[in-house]
Amino acid sequence: MRLGISHASVSNWMRGITEPSNANVEKLARLTGEPASEIYRLLGRIEPIQADDPEQQVRDERLLQVFRELREEHQDTILMVATTLLEQQRKTEGE
Question: Residue 67's closest CA among 19, 49, 59, 47?
Answer without folding.
Answer: 59
